[in-house]
Design a protein that fits this description.
Elements (H helix, E strand, L loop, with lengths): L2 E11 L10 E8 L6 E2 L2 E3 L6 H13 L6 E15 L2 E12 L12 E7 L1 H8 L2 H18 L1
Parallel strand pairs: 1-6
Antiparallel strand pairs: 1-2, 1-4, 2-3, 2-7, 5-6
Length: 147
Amino acid sequence: MALRACGFIVFRRLAGLNSPAGDIEYLLLQTSYGEHHWTPPKGHVDPGEDDLTTALRETQEEAGLGAEHLKVIDGFVQELRYEVRGRPKEVLYWLAELRNPEAAVTLSDEHRDYRWARLEEACGLAGYRDLQETLRAAQRHLEAQLD
């Protein structure tokens, strides 16, 4: 059976920029273990917990951003499938806007840094092609809502 994790692609809109696509930044956290990769907040599903509850809990634990800080965007969920140490893993990401773009991020011990980054920088930090595609899909979804 595959390991299952859930999280949010958290974004914020910056005021005062001309381009609708250019005013969006994504939150990425740098792990304090392994290769110190960058990822949106996510974590494993606890027994008896539903996926969305996991995403909310993990975002609170890893970034200090609770449900009161986030507006979940309708119509977006992405599933990634890959292997970790020879075992299959599934990750579900929802998309959520930070209600207050100035809200503070508070890292857990699992992460050593965070960054707000526009799409191309975020994709460069993300490193993995499936996560890059997920970030691009989020951007397309947000742009489509502006049309």
